[in-house]
Every structure is written in structure tokens, then in C-alpha cells.
Amino acid sequence: MQGAAGLLCETAEGPPRPWQRQPCGRCPGCTLLRSGSHPDLRLLLPAALAGELGQRAAGSGGEAPPDGRAASRGTVGREIAIDQVRELIDWAQATSHRGGLKVALVHPLDAMAAPAANALLKVLEEPPAGLCLLAGSHRLDRVLPTLRSRCLLQPWGRPDAARALDELRRRGTEQPEAVAAWCRNAVFDSDPARGLQWTRRLVEQMAAGQAPQGDGVAPAVAVESLQKLSFDLLRCRAGLPALYLQGLDDSLRRLGGQGDAGAWQQWWRRLAQAAATADFPLHAGLAVQAWIVEWTHLCTSRAK
Ligand SMILES: [Zn+2]
Questions:
Q1: DSSP string covering the chain, please?
Q2: How is the chain split into domains, by residue range?
Q3: First vs last Cα of the chain: how many Å apart?
Q4: Rounded (10°) CA dihedral 90, 91, 96, 97
Q5: How far is the CA of 26 from the centre of ligand 1 (A)?
Q6: pLDDT per residue over 150-185, tens digit each?
Q7: Which residues of the chain are modeled with pLDDT < 50?
């Protein structure tokens, strides 16, 4: 938002990169931005994130998109919908209200299915005059390479722990400390708590001696969660505190991570391969359950 403020300020001057300018805070542009009604600013956020941030996302009207495909992958409202991108394109074609730049903030750039990303790519290929597109992402590796290659990259640090907690509390997130640990303070991700409850349930089921059930989560989320869980298991096995699953150290230590080092190495490789193809498994439910079985076996088998 700071970058957008410098671009929409009507008196700011300074660095050649206009998004680094300091807004004056007094001109009509700054006043409109502060009141949340600047006509030359558009936010492109997933509906769920917009709701949490108290913003109105472009095109969505704050509602989750009625997209059956997204629903089947458990991403309703967590992705930027193609209708939102189309609405942004229409808005970008019109002339600027204030006679200056038009600014579109897109976040997270990785929270887009291929059709929406391709629609946005067309804007970047032939950008309307005076449009400045600022996009953010915690996961550059998940951004369409053709999109990424048309952006000027500017690295930003993650929020520190205090800022991340403040942000989660402001949104009314339950168990903000646990969520901040789980996402390593990447609280502006489209769904920072994604996979946390699912992983806790796995640990609880294992601790209670039940066969863990891996249903109810998309394969990509399952893989990411199993990577975090396995990492914490190995940390606890080595006597270190858990990094992602705060407060579960005792359960994780009891759970063991007892397989030998070679078996764990193979498991890491399996997960890394699965992460690369998790968006396209032949049968999502079976794939997740197979990983759970493999993981359970690894935890319960004794080191040789
Ligand atoms: Zn200003």
C-alpha cells in the first residue's frame, strides 16, 4: 500500500522509481487514498483475504466465486477469480479520474488458477497507458513464469513476529500465535493457516493410536503440511523445539520420527516430487491417503 500511496500522491517527487516516493499525506490524492475511495486505485485480492482485511476486492463484491472447480479443490474465495481479473481489465482501459496514474494492487500473485493468470498476463503484455500494477507474493515459485518474467522484482522482508501477531489479532484470527508459527509470519499469504488444523488432527489421531485420516484437504496443501510436520518431527527427535507446530513438542516427541535416517531422506525426496505435481494428481483423495500411510509407516517403524 505504501508503494501505491507514492504513486497516487499528486505532489510527491523523488526517486526515479515512482513507487519508492514518499506521499505528502495532504493532497487530494493522499486524502482520497486514506478515505479508501481513491477512484484510480484497484485492489485485486482473493475474496476471503479481502474479507479478513476489511477491503472490498475488485469484481468479487466480497463474495466467494461460484466456481465448482475451485470448490472441489477447497480453494473457494482463496484464489483471485478470473471475473475479478476481467473487471480489472475493463477498469484499466478507462481514463484516470484524477488525471494521474492508475494503480492496481494484486496480492498474492500466486493465488490464481491458470485462466486468471493468463488473463492478467495479457494486461502485462499490452499494458494500458498510465497503469501501474503492483503485485505481491510470498511464493514466487508458484507464479506463472511468463507473468514473473514481465515483472520488475523488488524483494521485501517477511513481517517480524510482533507485526505478524498484530495483523492476525486485528483480523480476529483464532490462535494467532499458532498461525504465525505455522506460516513463519507470512501472514499476508492468501490463507496463512492453510493445513494447520488438518495437521493437528493427524498428530492427535496418531497420538491416540488411531489410523490417521487425510481427507478434507487439497493435495498441494497436504504435501506442504506433511513437509512442515516431518521437519518438526525431526527437530523434536533431535531435542530442538518445533518450528511450525507450536505447543505440540511433547506429542511430536512421543510420536517419534523413529524410522532411520535413510528412510527419512527417501521420504523428503518423495515429498519434494509430490510438491511438484500435487496440483495435478490423478486421484486427489487417494494420493493424499497414500502419503499419510507412508508417513505413518515411517513414524512407527523402528530404526534398524
Ligand atoms: Zn500527496
A1: -HHHHHHH-SS---SSSGGGSPP-SSSHHHHHHHTT--TTEEEE--HHHHHHHT-PPTTTTTSPP--HHHHHTT-TTTSB-HHHHHHHHHHHHSPPSSSS-EEEEE--TTSB-HHHHHHHHHHHHSPPTTEEEEE--S-GGGS-HHHHTTS-----PPP-HHHHHHHHHHHT-SSHHHHHHHTTT-TTSS-TTTTHHHHHHHHHHHHTTPPP---SS-HHHHHHHHHHHHHHHHHHHTTPPPSSSTT-HHHHHHH---S-HHHHHHHHHHHHHHHHHTTS-SSHHHHHHHHHHHHHHHHHSPP-
A2: 39-148, 196-300
A3: 55
A4: 130
A5: 5
A6: 998 888 888 899 999 999 999 899 999 999 999 999
A7: 60-74
> Ligand 1 center to residue 24 CA distance, Å?
4
Q: How far apart are CA 291 and CA 155, in angstroms?
A: 34
Closest CA to 22 of 7, 32, 38: 7
**In angstroms, what is the span from residue 30 Cα to ligand 1's centroid?**
4
How far, in Å, from the CA of 92 to the mean position of ligand 1?
22
> What's the CA-to-centroid distance between 102 and ligand 1, angstroms?
15
Q: Which CATH architecture fits 39-148?
A: 3-Layer(aba) Sandwich (3.40)
- What is this structure's pTM? 0.72
Question: Where does residue 201 rank: exposed (0-12), middle (13-18), buried (19+ CB within 10 A)?
Answer: middle
> What is the rounded CA–CA span in Å between residue 100 and residue 9?
9
